[in-house]
Amino acid sequence: MKYLDEYRDADATRRYADAIARLVTRPWHVMEVCGGQTHAIVRFGLDEMLPRKITLVHGPGCPVCVTPIEMIDKAIAIASRGDVTFCSFGDMLRVPGSTTDLLTVKSQGGDVRVVYSPLDAVQLARDNPARQVAFFAIGFETTAPANVMAVVQAERWGLKNFSVLVSHVLVPPAIRAVLDSPRNVVQGFLAAGHVCAVMGTADYEPLVRQYQTPIVVTGFEPVDVLRGIYMCLRQLEQGRAELENPYARVVRAMGNRAAIAQIERVFHTVSRKWRGIGEIPDSGWALRPEYRQFDADERFQLQSIVAEEPTECLAGEVLQGHRKPYDCPSFGVQCTPDRPLGAPMVSAEGACAAYYRYRRHRQGNDEGRRTQ
Amino acid sequence: MCLGIPGKVLEIVAQADALPMGKIQFGGITKDICLAYVPDVVVGEYVLVHVGFAISKIDEQEAQEIFSYIEQIEALSGETDPFAAPRHDSADGESVEGAQGEGEGQV
Question: What are A118-162's pLDDT values in tens digits?
């Protein structure tokens, strides 16, 4: 496929890896923020092409992994009602809530549907006026244009039976939280390319300046990822801290203006809990009060649902880069993709699932690559 | 989750009171995709698609830059042989092996 295959070219990938090997003189810790990048790194073995001095820290940029457990419990509460069709992206179905998951609700007769696009959920509501249709609107900035359009479309069609359970999170506050941690080891960041395609790059300038940390907007294919790593390491080696965008075929500095305008019309910024990390100020989006008639949380009166996270899962440590997945005693034993204890084992983009799937165990090639 | 797939715009369907949609080709598959966020896209261009929406147009000129950049940094490092690169013809008949042995710095 054009614009995909050429960025997986083995020769170009190797040449970037060689350029990195020639460049590096000291140990560095670089975080790839996005779970899609984590998956590409582990799937294609990109981390193993790097000098041993370089540690890639897998960041919290997997929305499935950071959706708080009480949001999952709310989704389960809605999906368990007989009068509701609950629509979700497929990844969310096996994420464990406090006691069960959406897939189990479905297997017990709940009307849970996997949709490709949020517009499919709105169409379902229009086609079934006698049923309530709720959509689990999760995601980072990348997914927000689609999710808000579902609300706008429902408003345009005057639908009374459509609602959204919103659990949206934002990348720049998460980077700030990583940098503010007293245990932080990360010295440079690969920013999530598709988040920047929507929002642009301006929000990263203050982070670069305040923390004197390089941030490089990076794509998702092997050549893109190594290009981002090369540019980040070059800044670190040269003692520079700048915002660079080598993913310019997709990302414009001002982002997608039409999408930003629609997001600002429907969402406003709120503080959000992140699974495994805790509350981060101003780190998410929720429906504006003008759109509260579409808020599933209000429609189904779920505000009383709160939940504590299980303590046996080290997801928070993994998502902040303090531990590698194989440092968890449950990894691959009690916790597997079939029976996940925590969300990073569920999503294909979760660090734990990627390590499990591509056979990265403590005794394997990663020995000596641990963060601490 | 933030997966984005590049696809080619085959057809644009704009109707009054409906979202602008398009037929987008991904390799051998064609899907109906919402084009509301790429209002100036034309048939034949490539877009990046995420959960049923085109969120960005792909810039053809920028798309090749990543390959010229690696050539530049290789030239700067002095470790590659400029005569072996396809865009330079070895007019003087010097052997590739001999030229590689020089390892001379470039530009």
Answer: 999 999 999 999 999 999 999 999 999 999 999 999 999 999 999
Between CA A141 and CA B55 the distance in angstroms is: 11
Inform me whether the C-beta atom of residue B36 falls under 8 Å from chain A C-beta atoms. Answer: yes
Q: Compare all CA atoms of chain B with the CA of A225 and give the residue at the minimum distance.
A: B66
Nearest to B51 among A7, A36, A117 (CB): A117
Mean pLDDT of chain B: 79
User: Which ranges constitute the DSSP H helices of chain A?
Assistant: 10-23, 35-43, 63-66, 69-79, 102-107, 118-127, 144-156, 171-180, 193-199, 205-211, 222-238, 257-266, 296-299, 315-319, 351-357
The C-alpha atoms of residue B95 and residue B47 are separated, in whole angstroms, by: 44
Residue B41 near residue B10, CB atoms below 8 Å: no
User: What ipTM did this prediction achieve?
Assistant: 0.92
Task: Reply yes or no on whether the pLDDT at A34 is more than 60.
Answer: yes
**Which residues are A168's β-sheet partners?**
A139, A285
pLDDT tens readout for residues B17-60: 789 999 999 989 999 999 999 999 999 999 999 999 999 999 99
User: Which residues on chain A are in Cβ contact (under 8 Å) with B51?
Assistant: 89, 116-118, 143, 146
Contact assignment for B46 to A3 by CB distance below 8 Å: yes
pTM metric for this prediction:
0.89
Q: Are strands A132-139 and A267-274 parallel, antiparallel or unpaired?
A: unpaired
Q: Which amino acid is at A269?
A: T
Mean pLDDT (chain A) is 93
- Chain B contact for A67, CB < 8 A? no
Residues of chain B positioned with their CB less than 8 A from the CB of A91: 1
C-beta neighbour count of B89 within 10 angstroms: 8
Residue contact B37–A262, C-beta within 8 A: yes
Interchain CB contact of A258 with B (< 8 Å): yes
- Given an 8 Å threshold on Cβ–Cβ distance, is A3 in contact with B6? yes
CA dihedral for A120, A147, A215, A33, sign (positive or negative): negative
pLDDT at site A344: 87
- A6 contacts in B (CB within 8 Å)? 67
